[in-house]
Structures are given as C-alpha cells and as structure tokens.
Amino acid sequence: MLRMNGRQVKTTGALRSAIERLAGSVDVVSFDVFDTLFEREIEPPEKVKEAAARALSQYLNETSGIKRSSYELFTLRNHVESRLREQAGAMGKDTECSFTAIAGEMANEISGTVNEPLKNQIIRLDLDIEKDVIVVKEGMLEILQWLKSINKRVIAVSNMYLDKGHFQEIFKDKAIEGYFDDIYVSSENGLGKHSGKLFDYVLAKEQVAPGRMLHIGDHIEADYRVPIRMGIKAIRLYDTAHLKRKNIMLNYDALAAKNPYWRGRYALQLIRPRKAQGGGFYYNYGYSFLGPIYAAFVYGVIEEIKRNGIKKAFFIAREGELFMDIYKIFAPALSSEGEMPTADYVYLTRKTTALASLINGLPVDKALLGLCNPAQKGLHSILKVFGLYHEDILDIAKKHDFNNVEDPIWDFNDYRLASLIEDEQFQAKVRKYAAADRDTLQRYLNQLNFFGSGKTAFIDIGWSASIQKFLQDAFIERQDYPHVYGLYFGFSNLAKYTFDETRNTIVGILLDQRRRSAVEQILARFEELFEEGARDLQPTTVGYKINPETNMVEPVFKDENDPGRVIELINNDLIKAIKEGVVDFSREFLRAVMLTGYTFDDIKPFIMTTAERGIAFPAKEEMRHLFRLQHAEDFGSKSITDFNDDKINNPAIIFNPAKFKAVIKQSNWRYGTVKSIGIPGLPLLLRYYDIIREL
Q: What is the pTM of this model?
C-alpha cells in the first residue's frame, strides 16, 4: 500500500513531477507548512521563542518598567505551553494548544490580571519574528500556481501552536494566501496529525474520500506513514539541500553552546547571500568581507556608548560617514528610546586640528610626527603637518642651517632640528599661527556644542587617535572640556601620544595595542584597506572658513585638481560599490544579532578570523581587484599609495634575500606582496612569523 499511495522525493522539481502523476486521481491537495511550504532561516525553532522573549523583555521594560529577563520570559512560555498541553491530554485530546492561549496566560502571569493588550503584543512580537525568518521554499510557488491553474482545491494542514488566523497573516505576508482554500491547524481543536485525528477532521470538513486526497509533507510519520495508513495518498518531500542547510545551523548552534567562538559563525550563517547586479566584485567584497568587520566595529561602539552613558556621538570625517550610516541602522533597534545619542558627522581631521594643538609651542616629540613617513621631506614635512609653511618661519629655519628644507631627516636627533625647536623666535611664530587657527577651530566646536557636552564619543578609524590628542592639547585647560571617549576601529598609538586620562578614555574596539593580541594585530597589516574602504567620497577637509552670510564656520575641502584628489575621483565608483555592499550587509547583520541575542564579545572572535583570512590569505580574485586600489595621504607629505606597487611580478626575487626583505618591509600589504609571488606556503610562513613576533 505504501508503494501504491506514497512517494518520496528529494527536490521540489521531483515533487512537481510526482504531483502531476497523481493529480488526476485526487480532488484535494494538502500541504504541511514548516519544512514543506516554508523553510526557517534559523534553527532550531526554539531560537524564534528566544528572540521573542528578548523582544518582550525590552518591550516590558520600556512601556511599563517591568523588569523580566529574556530567560525568565522564555522559561515562563515553556512552562505555560507544557501546562496547556498536559491539560489537553487530560481531556482526551491530542497534546496540542494554541498560541493565543499561551500568550493570554503569559500576559496574566506577568501583569497579575487579565491583560488583553499585553496578550496581543506577545502574539505580535512572535509573529513578526516568524515572518522574518521564514521563506517560501524554492519552487513551491510555481507548484501552487500550477495546482490552481488546474482547479485543484488546495489546503494547508499543520501541527503547530500558531492559530489559523496567524497562518493566514503569514501566508498573506509571503504572498501565497490566494492559493489556499482553507487552513487546518492542530491548535484550533486539539487534534494532531500524528494520531490521525486531524486528518479525520479534515476529511470530514472537506467532504472528501481518503483516496481522493493527496497530502504533502516532510515528516516521515505524521506526513507520510499516518496518512497512507488512512488511505490518503502522500508524498514525502525529503529535501536534502534544505536538510543540509538545517543540519549546518544545528551543528553551529551546538558548537556555539560549548564554545563562544562559534557564535559569530552561527550569526553569519543567518546572513542571506546577495550579489550586485552584474556580480560586481567591489560590492560583493564590501558585503562579504569588509561588511562583517565594519558592522562588528559599530556594534561594539554601540555597546560602549550604552555602557558608559555617552551623551554625544561625533563621527569623524572621513571614515566616520560610513560608520554613522551603520550606526543609524543599528541604534534604533538596539536601544530604548532616548538611550542612544544622535549622530553628528564632523569635519575634524588631523590637518585641521594639528596647528591649534601648538598653542603652547612645538615640542620635539610632535615635530617628529612629520618624519614618520617613508616619503618624508624633512623640515618641509614637519611644517606641512602643522600648517607652518610660511616665509617668516622659513627665514628662521635658514639660520639653523636648513638650506634645503626638503632634504629628508633620518636622524631624529638632528642638531638643526633641536636648535630650531629651542629658538624662542621660532616658537613665538608657532604660537601666533596656532592662536589664530585655534580661534577658528574653537568657533567650529562651539557650533557642534562640543564644550560642556559631558561624556562625548569620537568614532573613527583611529590608529593613533591624533585628532583626540590635538584637541586635548588645544583646549584641555577649558573647564567645560568634555570627557572624550575615543571609540576607534583600531588603536595602535605608534606616535606614543600621552593623554590626560581624567578627560580621555580610549578604546580600540577591534584592535587595541595595549591588549597585545596577535589575533587583533592582523588589522594593522593592511590599514590602508580599511581607510580606503570606508572613506567619504567627498574630499579631505583641509581647513575652515567663515561664511560671510551666515557667520558660520564651514569646512574647506582639498582642491579637486590636487593629484591625490584626482586619484580618489578615479576610484570613487569602486569605493561607492564597496560601501553599498557594507551597508546592505549591515542590515542583515542587525537581523542576525537581533535573532540570536549575541553580544559584540560573542561575535568578535569569529570576525577576527574573517579578517585574518582576507588579509593574510586572500583569494586570487581578491588580490587582483585590491591591487587596483589607490590611497591618497596628505598629512605631512603628499603621497599616493598605489596598492599595485606592493605586487611582486618576478618570483626570482626570493633568491636575493636582501632585496626580498626590503620589498616586504616597504609593502603596505605584506601578505599580498608575499602571496603575489605565487609560491604555496609563503603566506602561511609569514603568518607564523608575524604571530610569534607579537607574542
């Protein structure tokens, strides 16, 4: 009988063929819902309940001040559901119950009285999550359309606590409600498929003989053996591709329960794949590689803001523009009303803050900043860094044997530099120019309501926190100078800045040199990639001007004809595509963390693995496209980093160790340089060396 009335298929394509063979002998076609019509993108199904409990916990806290943890609410739900199922069994029914009843009893126990609005809210939160995590199985819509085209009566039959009305809402949301003539759910009358009672009920309501009904489902017992024993034709959809995806999720969930490292992997498994039209590499790279890293950074920023009660958030030009876009996606969903500060994009750069920081003169440690660049041009670079390239200062420099100010200075103890720094006439000129610059900068900061703002965050790519240092040196004596929290992508402090810790807190979200982590340090092995991938498409801010009509301070941008800016314009389309991919990924990332409840610390370990893979072990396609990028730098010495210059075209270089070492040392992306040689194992050796050196 099983062979006569039953079929088992592994794909929806095969399902269509099996239905076609049986369609002429049946009047009603019945579909199971979950894992048949729909697939859940999250497994196990308990994850939906956990997510609903977190949402309910937040709702109760925000609307009524009720403090109930998500764990308490999840436990309460399971307890109520078990009690209702036991009651149904005691009444001689199958152990089924409805979600409306569950939500009602939960609301009563939470509030201590009958609470219809809370019951409805519990239902709403659960349904919203269900709709978010289920998709119509590929190929199923075409089957439904075909069945309706041949005038078959189509129904849904499900063992589920959701009510019929809930299914109708979900079907409408998934645009399939028009293909179903009725829906039968075990929760409506306490009858289940396993016992056959729900099928008996359906046959009676549909007034159809068992042999004239076809049921399609995934469960070997409830959807296949039971209906066949009752004389109903059945097709079991044993979808191997779906089961493989489902088992992957279940395995990652089990691993995550034992080892936090796997939580990030589980969360990323929830990210729905997406490709740019035409398969654009740069969009895909933003979505699949830079997106996870940038999104995790902003997620960490939000946790720090909440943890420290920060009142203002300044996103620093130019990388801050992308970070602010992500913040605006995350903040409303991850915080209660009024908990997160508004986001302000501010035109603060090293270029616009350096001179003001010299209000008390130029010390030697700051002067050396201009020399920390392979392309440095000695005193010329120092003066350019701080906006001091003026004739009167050049005249003073000549008195200290600076006959050609563009000669590089490789000896940081150069007697000429020491003599110039000690010259009071020189320092007086420095203070004069700094005072004028400081006044304009102060007006701009006043416009931002920076002073007196309490705890204030700077969100930026970071590395040395130069802007925070320069502002401290320029204005720290003001009583209303806020406590500035530098929340940076990475903090390495290679410039060895000192900070007034009573007014400054610095946090390297993904990389912090003070943690001495070899894993985190991978981000410093290709800094330019993260700067270029996030940069604003607008030019760099190089100064300020007063608008005579508004009397407001406005940014002055780098000239569009500047060589560095010309290079940026050439690459802007590529950077735009990267950023679009990042933003699209960030929306998916938010969905993943909302569904899982994972924190930044949960996700970070796997994100760092993602970073290591992309930087230390890039694919050939990634290398080919990344070598096309160029990065403009104008802090001290105008230079253009062409990533393609890091590529080695002649493998024979390894037979000249001295030259090979020199090329690697000068590379901005050492792993890309080593990988470009094409010799297997070299990147891995470099990684081993890198890790050992950091330990």
A: 0.91
CATH of the domain at 331: 3.40.50
CA distance 604 to 292: 10
- Higher-scoring residue by pLDDT: 34, 667: 34
Per-residue CA distances from 368 to 217, 378, 493, 528 (Å): 73, 9, 14, 22
3 state SS of 653:
helix
* Residue 37 CA to its chain's centroid (Å): 30
Name the residue range of residue 331's domain: 300-351+437-555
Is it the case that residue 495 has pLDDT exceeding 80?
no
Q: Is there a domain that residue 510 lies in?
A: yes
- Distance, in Å, from the CA atom of 265 to the CA atom of 260, rounded to the nearest integer, reads 10
Produce one character per residue of 174-188: b if its CB has 16 or more CB atoms within 10 Å, e if not.
bebeebbeebbbbbb
Examine the domain organization and report whether 125 and 157 are in the same domain: no
Per DSSP, what are the bridge partners of residue 639? Answer: 633
Domains contained in the chain, number: 3
| In a shared domain, residues 73 and 198 | no
Last residue of a domain, one of 526, 555, 584: 555
Closest Cα partner for 157 from 245, 85, 224? 224
Of 522, 555, 588, the last residue of a domain is 555
For the residues of 1-25, what is the DSSP string, one character each? -HHHHEEEESSHHHHHHHHHHHGGG
| Residue reference for tokens 């499900």 | 158
Helix intervals (H) in 91-139: 99-111, 116-133
pLDDT at 337 over 90: no
Note whether 180 and 211 are same-domain residues: yes
